[in-house]
């Protein structure tokens, strides 16, 4: 059985990559994908802690299924919003999109 620390380290690395992608990227689609990487890091933690704390129950797996479903909905809505912004502004650069300013 793989030690819990390996899963935590892998999850922390994925979460750090996701944070870097959100903070450093200018493209809205890449920012959305970086958020999805952070969601997957959390899902790895759910699964790992569930397997180590309560291996008889499937609580972590159930939370992961709900998180994957909400992540899929988030990606669908986010891509629709990005598509509408692209049609109006003809850019997906997050620095150039300032729709709330006059």
| Count of the domains | 1
Percent of residues in beta strands: under 5%
Radius of gyration: 17 Å
The average pLDDT is: 89
Looking at the overall shape, the CATH architecture is Orthogonal Bundle
Number of helices: 3
Order of helices and strands: HHH
What best-fitting shape do the alpha-carbon axes yield? Answer: elongated
The helical percent reads over 70%
Description of the molecule:
Helix content is 76%, strand content 0%. It has helices at 4-24, 28-53, 59-89. α2 runs antiparallel to α3. The protein is elongated, with a radius of gyration of 17 Å. The mean pLDDT is 89.
List strands and helices in order, with pairings:
Layout (H helix, E strand, L loop, with lengths): L3 H21 L3 H26 L5 H31 L13
Helix pairs in contact: 1-2, 2-3
């Amino acid at each position: 059985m793989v030690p819990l620390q390996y899963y935590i380290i892998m999850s922390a690395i994925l979460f750090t990559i996701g944070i870097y992608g959100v903070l450093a990227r200018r493209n809205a689609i890449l920012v959305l994908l970086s958020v999805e990487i952070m969601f997957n890091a959390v899902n790895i933690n759910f699964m790992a802690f569930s397997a180590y704390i309560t291996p008889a129950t499937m609580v972590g797996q159930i939370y992961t299924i709900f998180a994957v479903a909400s992540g899929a909905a988030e990606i669908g809505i986010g891509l629709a919003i990005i598509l509408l912004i692209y049609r109006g502004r003809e850019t997906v650069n997050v620095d150039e999109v300032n729709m709330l300013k006059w």
